[in-house]
Amino acid sequence: MLWIIVSVLVITTKGHDDFSIEEATIESIQRAFAEDKLTSLQLVDLYLNRIQNLNPVLRSVLEINPHARVQAEEADRQRRSNSHHPRSFLHGVPVLLKDTIATDDKMNTTVGSYALLGSVVGWDAGVVEKLRNVGAVILGKAILTEWYSFRALGKTPNGWCARGGQAQNPYVLSATPCGSSSGSAISVAANLVTVSLGTETDGSILCPSSFNSVVGLKPTVGLTRAGVIPVTPRQDTIGPICRTVSDAVYVLDAIVGFDSNDEATRYASYYIPPGGYKRFLNPCGLKGKRLGIVRNPFFKIAQGLGLAQTFENHLHTLRRQGAIVVDNLQIANIDVILNVTASGEAVAIVAEFKLSLNAYLRELVASSVRSLADIIAFNLKFPDLELTDKIGQDIFLAAQATNGIGAQEKAALANLENLSKNGLEKLMRDYKLDAVVIPRADASSVYAIGGFPAIIVPAGYDSQRVPIGISFGGLKGSEGKLIEITYAFEQATKIRKPPPFKP
C-alpha cells in the first residue's frame, strides 16, 4: 500500500494565532479573514502549495486557474476597502469546479477528453456566474471519469480521463475513487481545496462522496444546470461536494436560482425557501422526522462489506435524536429501477445525449469538434491519446445511431415516469416520509429518474479503511428537510476523518 508523506500547512500572520487549512471550513476561513489572521491570497497560495505536493500522486486537480491569485487579491482589496460591508459566506473562498462546468476564462472545459482541449465556451455556467458575483475564487478544474463513464459501457476506469490520467482515492490509493465527480471529491477530502462542485446524472456526486468520506449534495434537477457539458438535461444537476453539511449548504445557497439560459430554473426556483437553505442547519433537525429504511437490496450490500452493524448503530442514533424510523420498507419495482436497461433509462439517455451534446457543441465560440460524430472521429484518429483501442466508444456509437426521440424513447420515458410515481413517490406519500435512508450511493438511479434530491454524508470506514457514506433522499424540493436531517446526523456522529497520510 502506498502512502503519501505530507506536512500540515500552517501560516502565522501579524502576530496572531496560527491558522491551519487542515479541515478548514468556510466558517473558520471567514473568521480568520475577519480577525485579520488570513487573506484570500494566502489561502490560495496554501492550497496551490498543497496541490503541488500531493497532486502528482492523487491527480485530482486537472488544471489551475491562472487568474486565481488575481481573484484572491481582488477579494482582499474589497475586504480592506469596506471591512464592515456584509458579504457572502463564499467571499474570498477558493472553489474547485469539475471539468464539465463552463468557465469564460483561460481554463479549458473538456469533460476530460483531448477532443475538447482548446475549445472556447465563451460564457460562464450559471453557477460560475453566481460564484463570481459573491466573490468566490475559482481555483481550477477537477479531474473526472472521462465523459462521465458514458463513452463505453463499464470500460472507463473510475477517476480516469485522457487529459489527467488516473485519480487516486486518498484513503486507500488502491481503492476506487468512484466517479464521475471523483476529482471534486478527492480534492476536498485531501484538503486540496475548501469546497468543490460536481455534477450528477446518475450517482456522479453521491458515489465519489461516499468513497472519499465527504458530503455530497445532489439538488433537485432544475435548481442548477445550465452551462454543463450535458448527458441529459432531464437528469443533469450541479451540486456541492464539501467536508461538512454546513459548507455544502453555503455553496448551495450561492449557486441556486433563476438562470436566463435555462428555463427549467424558472420553475425549480419556486422550491428555494425564503431566506435560503442555511436556516435549516438545525442540530435538532431529526426530531419528529419520519425516515423510511429501505433494506432490500441495499442493506445486503452493506452486510457483504461487513458494515451491517455500523448501519444498525446509525439507525439507533437516528431514533435517539428523535426521528421516527419506519423500517423494512420496499420501493416498488426496485430491481427494474436499478437496471438501467430494464427501466428504459439507458434507451432514453442515449438518445437525449446525442441531442443535448450536439446542441452544446454548436454553441461553442471555437471548437474543432461540433458534433458527437466529430468526437467519434477524433477518437479514431488519435486512438493513443484516448485509449480508444482499450476503452472503445460503444455508447457513443449507439447514441450516434439514434434519430431523436421516437416511439421507443417515448415509451422508455413513460416507463421511467411510472416507475418513479409508483416507486419512491408513492412510498414517500403512503408512509408520510420526510426522507428515505440508504447505505452508500446504491439508490442513485431511484433519485436520478425522478429528478429527486439526495445528500450523502460520511458513515464509517470498512476493514480496509475505505470510506462509506449514508444517503438521505426525498421528493423534489425537499432540500430543506434533507439538510435538517443530515446536519443533525452529522453533528450527532462526527464520523469524518481526514485521510491518514503516513509514510
Automatic annotation (TrEMBL):
PANTHER family: AMIDASE, OS04G0183300 PROTEIN. Coiled coil: none annotated. SUPFAM superfamilies: Amidase signature (AS) enzymes (SSF75304). This is Amidase domain-containing protein. It comes from Gossypium arboreum. Residues 43-440 form the Amidase domain. It holds the Pfam family Amidase. Keywords: Signal. It comes from the Eukaryota. Residues 1-15 form the signal peptide. InterPro entries: Amidase_dom, AS_sf.
